């Protein structure tokens, strides 16, 4: 186990991600942007290593994506930045396709795995909003709100569903199966509420609070795979219990004009808590001892045996060259004729 842990924490991808993040923190002029950069360079690649551990193509995509995010801090050209953001968006699309493939292989049979599937699909939405922010696309919101939406779909819509899915591999109960759809629908409901209805935003945050606090209670009743993992995951989920209260205050102000909470306050406390405690501690907790899936993938068995045409030397899909080698054709024709005459006679009798 310790060898596997070292291979994940000190893999080339992880080391490169930490190096790129440190370099980005030195180069960036806007420190608050580092919350999203941390997710893109460290948290997301680490979680993908747990899910796509044997996929070399995905490792290559991770490298390309991390390099693109880092170069965004270096290249001043707006066109160059758009190209780099587009490359990152393609990675998120690739991850979403993999999540969709996982879902089609299994269907609605396991809430833990469905949570992981949906989280991987949500990442593409985060990639789209990140591209819109870098490209300066008019989304109907300010550039800051566009960036906040991108970070929302990296943390609340990717890291949380993946963490919830890993937790479901260790714990299964009626309460767990109840809160998973609430948490998975939360990012969309909150986004719709922010866009169209402050009241819907307030209601969705209340549902989110119920689900998050239920998750915290379940986490304190669950036995994890190691003592350190127990501490890290419980702290990670508990941090959500604090940050979601900030979201409630913000939604209450939007809906009823009470308890004013500024975006600057949300960035400093809500965002920082989610990044350092929920994100960093949660990812480290699952990297320590990744729980194995209990779900078997449904595969339809297909025989790989093939026949060969006589004298042609070519393969064709079949087990025999001539059916007549195994069937007496004349006897078969005679029996078929008798069967047909019998069926016709029965038909006349019925008429």
Question: What keyword list fits this structure?
Answer:
mainly alpha, globular, two-stranded antiparallel sheet, 75% helix
Number of helices: 12
Mean pLDDT score, rounded?
A: 82
Strand order in the sheet with the most strands: 1-2
* Portion in helices: over 70%
CA radius of gyration is 28 Å
* Order of secondary-structure elements: HHHHHHHHHHHEEH
> Biggest β-sheet, characterized?
2 strands, antiparallel
Please give the number of β-strands.
2
Shape: globular
Distance between the termini: 77 Å
**Secondary-structure content class:** mainly alpha
Q: Could you list the spans in which at least 5 consecutive residues all have pLDDT below 50?
A: 347-351
Strand content: under 5%
Helix and strand layout, with pairings?
Layout: H1 2-9, H2 12-27, H3 34-51, H4 56-71, H5 78-106, H6 111-135, H7 143-168, H8 174-196, H9 198-220, H10 227-256, H11 263-288, E1 307-308, E2 315-316, H12 329-350
Description:
By secondary structure, the protein is mainly α. 75% of the residues lie in helices and 1% in strands. A two-stranded antiparallel ribbon has the order 1-2. Strand 1 (307-308) and strand 2 (315-316) form a beta hairpin. Helix 4 runs antiparallel to helix 5, helix 6 packs parallel to helix 8 and helix 10 (227-256) runs antiparallel to helix 11. The longest helix is centred in the last third of the chain and has 30 residues, at 227-256. The protein is globular, with a radius of gyration of 28 Å.
